[in-house]
From TrEMBL:
The lineage of its organism: Bacteria, Bacillati, Bacillota, Bacilli, Bacillales. This is LuxR family transcriptional regulator. GO terms for biological process: phosphorelay signal transduction system; regulation of DNA-templated transcription. It comes from the Bacteria. GO terms for molecular function: DNA binding. SUPFAM superfamilies: C-terminal effector domain of the bipartite response regulators, CheY-like. CDD domains: LuxR_C_like, REC_NarL-like. Its main location: cytoplasm. It is found in: Cytoplasm. InterPro entries: CheY-like_superfamily, NreC/VraR/RcsB-like_REC, Sig_transdc_resp-reg_C-effctor, Sig_transdc_resp-reg_receiver, Tscrpt_reg_LuxR_C, WalR-like. The modification 4-aspartylphosphate is found at D54.
Length: 216
């Protein structure tokens, strides 16, 4: 069972999510929080696998709550579920440690799949949010020069990872085993000093390392 905590200040949103998620045989909603502070307290008590986190909430917003949760309980995944897709919201959320970022207009079945992918440690970012994030990052000026520490094959894996592909899909695309893909991903995390697939994908977009085949 995937244990989910819902954090949203709107009662109707929480009720809607609860009603739908309760129909899923592999998902259990363990609690509901009305703001970031409640979310932190409930994570301490309930130890969920995933927090569905709204961004704008009273007392403490979703970004600050995510930072606190990831600092104290790094194994708890945070999946942002919000109405904002602009880079000023997406980038801080990912940098705070969110494993995924989805918009509230997402289809219910797609949200469930996003929860399952997040549970498996895969990055899930809504296409609209991804587009806004990429455009915003490319508009930034004076980014520090980054010497790319990755081998050409690691860059290939990173490029595929950035597209949201699973280890199995990456292995199929690159004609290697899943074990080899896992090794490459582990090396990528260590070299880029990131903790998960979402942060690795963000790094790739920010520093132009998304093309693979040794291109930087």
């Amino acid at each position: 069972m995937i244990r989910v905590l819902i954090a949203d200040d709107h009662h109707v949103v929480r009720r809607g999510l609860l009603f739908f998620l309760k129909t899923q045989k592999d998902i259990e909603v363990v609690g509901e929080a009305k703001n970031g502070l409640e979310a932190i307290d409930m994570v301490a008590q309930l130890k969920p696998d995933i927090v569905l986190m709204d961004l704008v909430m009273p007392k403490m917003d979703g970004i600050q709550a995510t930072k606190n949760i990831k600092t104290k309980w790094p194994n708890v995944q945070v999946l942002m579920l919000t109405s904002f897709s602009d880079k000023d919201h997406v980038l801080p959320a990912i940098e705070a440690g969110a494993s995924g970022y989805q918009l509230k207009d997402i289809e219910p079945d797609e949200l469930v799949e996003s929860i399952r992918l997040t549970m498996r440690g895969e990055n899930t970012i809504h296409p609209e949010a991804t587009t806004q994030l990429e455009e915003g990052l490319r508009e930034e000026e004076n980014l520090p020069h980054v010497l790319n520490p990755l081998t050409p094959r690691e860059q290939d894996v990173l490029a595929e990872l950035t597209k949201g592909k699973s280890n199995r899909e990456i292995a199929s695309s690159l004609f290697v085993t899943e074990k080899t893909v896992k090794t490459h991903i582990s090396n990528i995390f260590a070299k880029l000093e990131v903790q998960d697939r979402t942060q690795a994908a963000l790094y790739a977009v920010k520093h132009g390392l998304t093309e693979g085949s040794g291109k930087a």
